[in-house]
């Protein structure tokens, strides 16, 4: 169930501070009845946390904005929101209930009510947070005490789910009040329990689990524990500071060498708190890296052009003059021939930018960066295998033909070049960047076409949980964009036949054409290189047999010696070439990808046939049940496309870059 927008709810979520950048999201929970005399001390602690968060995790923070999720309740929520706004942090307010009903809780506290209004006006977005168990059409009555607590629980659940790290201001009393601070802290640390998850899949996912920064502070409630105001250890106080500079390079080099020689230390299981902060650091580093690269490239005209080309390419129709006939047919479909013309459909592009602008901004950056790192990744593998083959040639010549120190020096230099390329690629995360950015771009591709088709569900809820550790960053980015869409608070636009047809034309036909073409190409490459490898391997004994036959007729011992050495070198080179070709083909996973793409091609072709049948059943108008059918097809296609991409990432994660041989 989507969040309910409130009228006149703040600023525009597309403001320059968030334009094309992935934010770090901080949530807040805490007691509403803090002692007024403690406000200044607590504010100082919160300001210290924001300063340390930026210093430790966002040293280049201008490229990575911070968002605070606060329900703006009296006490903790309002206090932290004030400090956040004073520190140039964007505020988004998921409220537990409609504002009119919510402000009844401020009765008798005019200062808190006035502060709520002031903070609300400065918020980027204000909306009512849905409860995970709410159904479409539910009309909860927050005037009932039990339902009111449940609405506060809904706001806390939303903040726990969408924040990357949470600040909790409380006295540490582990009560189990519905919607209370203790419960929300537990949800963030341990995950949202099954009974509060919309389905079993969400309960198994657990991607909302994250670290909590605790500020201990007393509350006014009689009988509650009285504690001194203090910040409990968090961040690097828990995990220790990471190595930097030369020490990091040395440690990275040692780890790479250990991995290369097959040594995998069995570390003791980490404490859950340490693990949560380590995961947080890894996710923040990926976000920083993306924002920094995107900002650097957008500073140049070449980079901005690449971003623009990626978005244009998304809405480009590669089709021939018979495209409309091909799309409308319900019989066998054939792909457009090579060299067909392409047309940019500005109607769907304008529509997508209007309904999914934040998604489009991140997509064009992610896609352009993925293409750049894909080129670097392929170049790394090509040069590693080339260096390996050249080293084989040099060694064979040195061992059997020419014993020269010059060859030995050249051999060492060639191996050194291969290791240099290997260390450079690993230390700069070439493969990881390529896979992360491509996985993000593909998830955003699905999201954008869902938005154009007016599919209103959160994209992150449909994202695969199979590769949780490898794709955690992608899912969190998508979830953050879902949250920003809630903050936009725009009412859903009505369904239209033209939008559904545009999605069919650009996405369904385009992806079917892409997967069918790539599957044929990859299968051809795999078969061709397998034949090359077998031919090179088979040539080795043939050269040996021919050499033996020739040597049988040669009686000059000097000539026989040279021919023998040449035969051995040639045989060794053919075997080396076969190994290099087979290794290159295996590492780039041509055959495995070809099978996957063939499956996706059949899936999109089947979907195209079904969509064509629904759209063409009534050319002049489209019935609501047909709209529902088409949207269900698009939704399932999106799920399968994201699942396929997760499996594609897994294929490459299992083939980390390493020296050839």
Your description of this structure?
The chain is an alpha/beta fold. The protein is 63% helix and 6% strand. The protein contains 21 helices and 10 strands. The protein has an 8-stranded mixed beta sheet with strand order 1-5-4-3-2-6-7-8, sandwiched between helices. The chain has a two-stranded antiparallel ribbon with strand order 9-10. Strand 3 (66-69), helix 2 and strand 4 form a beta-alpha-beta unit. Helix 5 (145-162) packs parallel to helix 6, helix 10 packs across helix 11 and helix 13 crosses helix 14. The relative contact order is 0.09. The model is unreliable at 6-11 and 320-333 (pLDDT under 50).
Shape: globular
Largest sheet: 8 strands, mixed
Indicate the structural class: alpha/beta
Question: Strand sequence of the main sheet, in spatial order?
Answer: 1-5-4-3-2-6-7-8
CATH class assignment of the domain at 4-234: Alpha Beta
User: So, CATH architecture of the domain at 4-234?
Assistant: 3-Layer(aba) Sandwich
Helix content: 55-70%
Distance between the termini: 53 Å
Q: What is the count of β-strands?
A: 10
Radius of gyration: 30 Å
Percent range for β-strand residues: 5-15%
| Alpha plus pi helix count | 21
**Unreliable residue runs:** 6-11, 320-333
Mean pLDDT: 81
Q: The CATH topology of the domain at 4-234 is what?
A: Rossmann fold
